[in-house]
Amino acid sequence: HATALIALHVEARAGAASLQEAAALSAELGRASTLLSVVLHDTMVGCGGGWTSLRQRGML
Q1: Residue 36: per-residue pLDDT
Q2: Which SS3 state, helix, strand or coil, does residue 47 take?
Q3: Rg (Cα) of the chain, in Å, rounded?
């Protein structure tokens, strides 16, 4: 019984570690996508009023 409990405990800890890794990874991806959208937005704004006027006319 003790061996089974230890095995369960080890599995639970491994699961918790992988959950933490997944959470950290998704946080990284979130930061990256936020940065990407900011860069894209700045690029569109930097391209001049063309993008904005197209968007205002509903073409984008």
Answers
A1: 84
A2: coil
A3: 23
The DSSP code for 59 is -
Closest by alpha carbon to 42, among 52, 53, 32, 29? 52
Structure-token pair, residue 17: 């570690």
Place of tokens 């860069």: 39
Which residues in the chain come in under a pLDDT of 50? none
Structure tokens at 39: 């860069």
Q: Where are the alpha helices (DSSP H) in 1-60?
A: 2-46, 49-56
CA distance readout (Å), 10 to 5, 21, 47: 9, 16, 55
Per-residue model confidence (pLDDT) at position 59 = 58
- pTM (two decimals): 0.47
Question: Could you identify the residue written with the tokens 């894209």?
Answer: 40
